[in-house]
Design a protein that fits this description.
This protein is α+β, with helices and mostly antiparallel strands. The protein is built from four helices and five strands; from the N terminus they run E-E-E-E-H-E-H-H-H. Strand 2 and strand 3 form a beta hairpin.
């Protein structure tokens, strides 16, 4: 499964009321693509609804709206970025603790050479996908 949200950055107030569109900083809808390709969209606007599409491509053909400056965000990517960011923060803290504990200036590159970021990303992907 892949999860996403859709924002519309353009000002839609001239063509849509509050039941039809959210402000640009709020998602218009959230969705999921199932392993068989079926896509389900849940509208988050004033008048909420749920729609089931045979595919993500079919849904985007109707609701993609580049003229609305639509921005699709894949939630797994956001989660992955956050986990990597937190892990890098942990590594930095760990490095600092080692420096303090051993009262020695250890080159960060030497400590980190065995830590492979691609390997970490693979593990994170396996955990969240």
């Amino acid at each position: 499964m892949k999860r996403f949200v859709m924002f519309r950055k353009a000002d839609l107030s001239k063509t849509h009321d509050k039941n039809q569109a959210n402000p640009p900083d709020e998602p218009q809808f959230e969705g999921v693509i199932f392993s068989d390709g079926v896509c389900v969209v849940r509208w988050l606007t004033g008048k909420r609804s749920t729609a089931i599409w045979n595919s993500f491509e079919d849904m985007m053909a109707i609701h993609g709206h580049p003229e609305y400056e639509s921005e699709l965000i894949w939630l797994e990517d956001v989660i992955k970025e956050k986990v990597i960011e937190e892990f890098e923060c942990f590594l930095s803290s760990f490095y600092n603790q080692i420096q303090i504990q051993y009262n020695k200036d250890i080159p960060k590159e030497k400590l980190m050479e065995d830590i492979n970021i691609q390997n970490i990303e693979r593990i994170i992907n396996e955990m969240i996908l």
